[in-house]
Amino acid sequence: MRAFFQAARCESYLEVRAWRIPRAGTFCSGDSSMTRLKGLDLLALGFMTFALFLGAGNIIFPPSAGMAAGQSLWFAALGFLLTGVGLPLLTVVALARVGGGMDRLTAPLGRGAGTLLAVAVYLAIGPLFATPRTAVVSFEMGIAPFTGNAAVPLFVYTALFFSATLLLAVNPGQLVNRVGKFITPVLLAALLVLGGAAVFAPAGDIGVTAESYRSGPLLKGFLEGYLTMDTLGALVFGIVIATAIRDRGVSSPALVTRYSMVAGAIAALGLSLVYLALFYLGATSQGIAGEAQNGVQILTTYVQHTFGTTGSLLLAIVITLACLTTAVGLTTACGEFFSGLMPVGYRTVVVVFTLFSLLVANQGLTQLISVSVPVLVGLYPLAIMLVALNLLDRCWVSPSRVFVPVMAVTLVFGVADGLSAAGFNDLVPVLFTKLPLAAQSMGWLVPVLVTLVIAFAMDRLVGERRLAT
User: What is the model's pTM?
Assistant: First the structure.
């Protein structure tokens, strides 16, 4: 991925998403003198991993979830951390263990099914949802406070935004590296100031709990964590992290897995602190932003209330730049994947996807989120089970005998939950609506676990045990 991973084995620096990470030493691919990473190397790797995941969704969804959670703030935040932090971390570890990308994770499903799942993931993190969201978030945070949410300003801004995205994605090497290496430190500093203000200078007391969070705040927060798309993003970024470790001279699979876990843990800690601070910001902002429709409006209202116009302008610039590099990275990743999958050139894919993202972005943030929820409700169970089955790979005699039935059942019930979340309840069999947790869009869980138990038993009964290696 050009925007995320540009390295040469004999250079003394590794650049991933415009981060320059100093190596412990300069070496070529044949040099095995460095086989372990030192503390500073691991810390740098962890910050790189944090930078990969920090994007628009990580900033806009915690405040809205925190405002709705109110007095149930901490239970909702815990559920959010499970999907917003825990699942991406497990995905990174799973990819490190198999030593490859999504093709390795989906290998037991067969090439056709694996490719279809990969296409769905890339489209979700690309032109359908995540890429358009970067433009709309930066518009609503930086431009809308001055122009309003009218259609014309949104179109003009998104046209300029995606023109810059296209320019950088077509030839990402120079400008992304030149601009991007300054963006993340500034963004981290801004988030530190914002998080500190949220904790030490809240806009008010913790508000009341919304109806949607009263019955099951933990589960509701779990489902809200889907919206960050970080588990889907980890399916793309995990291989970048593992490759970065190997490029630094580590050849042992056990060490690659261990260092991936350490890097993931550092990133998870950083993301957790950001989420908790933004959750608290939202929960204490009901008095000033009670009518807000999304997290961007909550954040802009709080920053205007606490720091004034200057603070709002600074935050808008930082978020816009961060969203721009994220959009370039996602567009580049999709361009690389689909140009390798189809007989179409990279630049053609990038142009088509950028234009499509422009079209989707002009639906507005609230509309974009409402449309993405059913898709993510249907897609996330597949990602969760794919990672879980790979992490438990030593339990299977023949992985395909377990993967195929479990993922098939997950697909059926995930689609049913997605249709329910979209409001198409008439298309869902009545039996599906009677399942445990069906009302919370988790009806897939029990059938999938039952299928897993049966598949595991059959695998043991009819299969031959693997030869010890």
Answer: 0.77
